[in-house]
Amino acid sequence: MARTTGSDGEKTEAAVREAAVSLIARLGYEAMSMRQLAAEVGVQAAALYRYFPTKEDLLFTLMREHMAGLIEAWDAARPAAADPATRLAAYVENHIAFHIERRHSTHVSNMELRSLSHDRLTQILKLRTAYEKELRVILRDGAEAGVFDVEDTGLTAMALIQMMTGVIVWFRPGERLSISEVTATYLSMTMRLVGAKAHGGTTTCSAAAGEQRTL
Amino acid sequence: MARTTGSDGEKTEAAVREAAVSLIARLGYEAMSMRQLAAEVGVQAAALYRYFPTKEDLLFTLMREHMAGLIEAWDAARPAAADPATRLAAYVENHIAFHIERRHSTHVSNMELRSLSHDRLTQILKLRTAYEKELRVILRDGAEAGVFDVEDTGLTAMALIQMMTGVIVWFRPGERLSISEVTATYLSMTMRLVGAKAHGGTTTCSAAAGEQRTL
DNA sequence: GAATTAATTGAACGTTCGTTTTATTATCCG
DNA sequence: CGGATAATAAAACGAACGTTCAATTAATTC
Question: Which residue numbers in chain A have pLDDT < 50?
Answer without folding.
Answer: 200-215
